[in-house]
Design brief:
The chain has a single domain, classed as Dihydrofolate Reductase, subunit A (3-Layer(aba) Sandwich). Strands 7-6-5-8-1-9-12-11 form an eight-stranded mixed sheet, sandwiched between helices. It has a two-stranded antiparallel ribbon with strand order 2-10. The protein has a two-stranded antiparallel ribbon with strand order 3-4. It is α/β, with parallel strands linked by helices and 193 residues long. The longest helix is centred in the first third of the chain and has 13 residues. The chain contains four helices and twelve strands; from the N terminus they run ββββαβαββαβαββββ. α2 links the parallel β5 and β6. It comes from Micromonospora sediminicola.
């Protein structure tokens, strides 16, 4: 099985979005460099951020998100973001009416079942879990192997927390990597078992 990684860009004070579900400047580092990060050239980062981010992104086989993120993005119009093969959506509701059943999206009830399905689909590739409420639930269930965060120099004061509503202590190792990019600090921690 591949590694299960909880990931997102995050404010210095630990938020992945503001109170209105807006990321604000959290993704500016993805458009402030001169090295294309994606095939379309829409994302440009510093060389340092490219060297850190691109190999990680290339290993991702499946992303796990909550229904809220799925709805906010309109399901990425049925095309998984960033060239990822599949998206597993944690939800108690069925796919939206009229949803293309051939799109590589899988609607699963519960985080344990979602991670199990994602690992089946990913094989040896990485399972990425979006930070926030679902990511926090996956961490609390003991299913996260690694935490990655791109810390952006902004303070939100309030909003959607990186670890969601986790209410227990979880110890991390390291950090195993600390990489300073342009307007971002990339961090990687293994979860202590």
């Amino acid at each position: 099985m591949g590694t299960v990684v909880m990931y997102s860009s995050v404010s210095v004070d630990g938020f992945v979005a503001d109170e209105n579900d807006q990321p604000g400047p959290l993704f500016e580092w993805l458009t402030s460099g001169d090295v294309p990060l994606d095939a379309g050239g829409g994302l440009t980062v510093s060389q340092t951020s490219y060297d850190y981010t691109r190999p990680y992104w290339d290993r991702i086989g499946v992303t796990v998100v909550g229904r809220h993120v799925f709805d906010l993005t309109d399901g990425w119009d049925g095309k998984p973001p960033g060239g990822i093969d599949h998206v597993v959506v944690v939800t108690h509701r069925p796919a939206p009416e009229g949803w293309d059943r051939d799109a590589p999206f899988h609607f699963v009830d519960g985080v344990e079942a979602a991670v199990a399905r994602a690992q089946e689909l990913a094989g040896e590739r990485t399972v990425e879990v979006a930070a926030g409420d679902v990511g926090g639930q996956v961490l609390a269930a003991g299913l996260v192997d690694e935490v990655r965060m791109d810390v952006v120099p902004v303070v939100f004061g309030s909003g959607k927390r990186f670890f969601g509503s986790v209410d227990a202590q979880h110890l991390l190792e390291g950090p195993d990597e600390v990489v300073q990019g342009s307007r971002v600090l990339h961090l990687r921690y293994r979860v202590r078992r």
